[in-house]
Amino acid sequence: MRCSSQCDDGRYVRRHAAAVVCVQNRKQPVNISLATVVGLAGTLLAFAYTVPQMRKLARTETAAGVSVAALANSTVSGVAWTIFGVVEHELWVVLPALLSLPGTAGALLLAWTRGGNRDRLWLPALWAATIAALTALVPLLGSRPIIVALGCSITLMVAPAALTAWRSHDVSAIAASAWAMLIVDAMLAGAYGLLADIDANLIYALVATSGAALILARLAVPPHVHARFVPVPDDVDRDGLSLAA
């Protein structure tokens, strides 16, 4: 016959015949995977990197050098990534995308009301239609097309933003810190993609890093140097041109 009782020191006593054995009552260790750590860090940074641009637009009266189309594309992509993460049951895909939406949408609204560049506004509508079409075609084409599209979605944010920045003489409304943090966020997203075997994250990391670096390069160019490549119109105040902060 076997029975057990608890000792005064927290141990359990098992009795079997005349033998008494005390077994230490130990707590089970909590294991946190590397993918979880990377996913959590990426989630926090995904929220953080959208804040500087929104804050800068809120503080200033201008949206000089900011592309409205880029922010609109980013908002559409955030919604698409959130849905993709839910379908794939990937928590660390859902949370970064979901938490980046308030800052991106807020910056979009501010850029629109403060006279941001409105070129290529047809892109967000086309991008939303493309995502919807590829999603509907998953039963026929499989998930590969939508995965590639989502991975490249960051292109629709960084490409218009970079083009607008390099064409603009005044980039004072662009938050350099946001693009610097995007590079770090892209690295974390790529790391999670490697750990969790998510190809879309790997594509995103490559494109986001390249695009953000291109924009930071523009912000590092002094106004008088940029004017050699893109002539300043006569109605633009040369002395008022400045770099992003």
Could you please describe the fold and organization of this structure?
With 245 residues, the protein is mainly alpha-helical. It has two domains: 28 residues, no CATH class; 207 residues. Helix content is 64%, strand content 6%. It contains eleven helices and three strands, in the order βββααααααααααα. It has a three-stranded antiparallel beta sheet with strand order 1-2-3, with no helix packed on it. The longest helix is centred in the middle third of the chain and has 23 residues. The protein is globular. The N and C termini lie far apart (77 Å).
Spatial extent as radius of gyration:
26 Å
Number of domains: 2
- Give the strand tally: 3
Spatial strand order of the main sheet: 1-2-3
- Principal-axis shape equals globular
- Provide the residue-averaged pLDDT: 82
The H/E string reads EEEHHHHHHHHHHH
Count of discrete alpha- or pi-helical segments spanning 4 or more residues: 11
Q: What percentage of the residues does DSSP assign to strands (E)?
A: 5-15%
Unreliable stretches, pLDDT < 50, 5 or more residues? Answer: 17-26
Could you say which structural class the secondary elements and strand pairing correspond to? mainly alpha
Largest β sheet strand count, sense and barrel closure: 3 strands, antiparallel
Organism: Nocardioides agri
Protein name: PQ-loop repeat-containing protein
Keywords: Membrane, Transmembrane, Transmembrane helix
Write out key terms for the chains shown.
mainly alpha; 3 strands; 11 helices
Ordered list of secondary-structure elements with their pairings:
Layout: E1 2-6, E2 12-16, E3 19-23, H1 34-48, H2 51-59, H3 68-88, H4 91-113, H5 122-136, H6 138-141, H7 144-151, H8 155-167, H9 176-196, H10 199-220, H11 223-229
Antiparallel strand pairs: 1-2, 2-3
Keywords: Membrane, Transmembrane, Transmembrane helix
Protein name: PQ-loop repeat-containing protein
Organism: Nocardioides agri
